[in-house]
Amino acid sequence: MKKFILIAFMACNSLATLAQNHWSEVPYLTQSLSDKAIKEVLVSTEGGSIQVSGVEPSQARIEVYVVPNNNQDLTQEELKQRMEEYYTLRITDNNHELHAKAERKHDNTDWRKSVSIGFKIYVPQMVATNLTTAGGSIHLTNLTGEQNFVTSGGSLHVNQVIGKIKGSTSGGSIHVTNSQQYIELTTSGGSITASNCTGTIKLATSGGSLKLNQLKGDIDASTSGGSVNGDDISGKLLASTSGGSIDLTALACNLEGATSSGSIHVQMREMGKYIKLNTSAGHIDVQLPQQKGLDLNLKGSRVNAAINGSFDGRQEKDRIEGKLNGGGALIEAYASNGSVNVKFD
């Protein structure tokens, strides 16, 4: 085992020539991991960001960044003294595991002398992670494996990751792109953007909007306080919001959509087995491709459907129920206080 207990250690001799520095741009410490064959990364820090990227084994390394809070510009010696007095930094590698932990020595550290300690970690692509930070963002790029990560006050960024991906933030946005297999991401106070992803995808936010683009698989996307916008989605989609509209285009999927206080707009590129839509305080617009057969169940304050073909059922001002052209895929739409409008292209 190779173990380092680092209280204050500068990354390279060239830093000694600098009286002042932007510590967010220059590593406080750099250590090679090229001969370690790291398979698992475990990181914990109280106030900085964490980035893990897959690279060629020869480029594997860990970089530590120390940023004084309150926009202070410290000299090398001042930063060294602050780290020695208030913080402990531990980095160990053993059995192909990398452990990195930054923490305060004392709970009552003067906030005016506090710093943020972040990590940029470059490891082989096949790696698992377990990451925790109390006040920074988390970035994952070009990885394959099981990824678990949590931040209390930053954003999540996932790109080109394959495997089981599970992350959460209490106060930031989420961006996931070019990833696949199993994705579960949640935030209590930010928006979510997901694009070019496949697999089982679960996205949830308590206070932001959802933007979905080029997704394929079993998708569950929900928000308690924002809108849902989607384009080019196939497979199965469950989209719900308690406080916004739903706007979905170029769909080729089974669809369930619900909102408590907004309208729903859906445009299907190809039909799946069913569409189920519900709103309590808005209207519903559905655009469908020409189909040989549909089962229609439409209810609203007013229902408008340009039916073209044989219809067997009930057609009234506020509802249409029956089989179009012998029946087929289910189209179910309920608007408690708005109209339902269906057209065929």
Structural commentary:
The chain has a domain at 1-135. It is built from one helix and 27 strands. It has one helix at residues 76-86, and strands at 2-6, 29-32, 40-45, 50-54, 61-68, 87-94, 97-104, 115-123, 128-133, 138-144, 147-151, 156-169, 174-177, 180-187, 192-205, 210-223, 228-241, 246-259, 264-268, 274-279, 284-288, 294-299, 302-305, 311-316, 319-324, 329-335, 339-344. The N and C termini lie far apart (67 Å).
How would you sum up this structure in a few lines?
By secondary structure, this protein is mostly beta strands. Helices cover 3% and strands 59% of the residues.
Overall pLDDT confidence: 90
Give the overall shape, derived from the CA principal axes: elongated
The unreliable regions are: 1-23
H and E order:
EEEEEHEEEEEEEEEEEEEEEEEEEEEE
Range of strand content = over 45%
Number of helices: 1
Helix content percent band: under 10%
Spatial gap, N to C terminus = 67 Å
Largest sheet: 27 strands, mixed
Keywords: Signal
Domain DUF4097: 170-342
Protein name: DUF4097 domain-containing protein
Signal peptide: 1-19
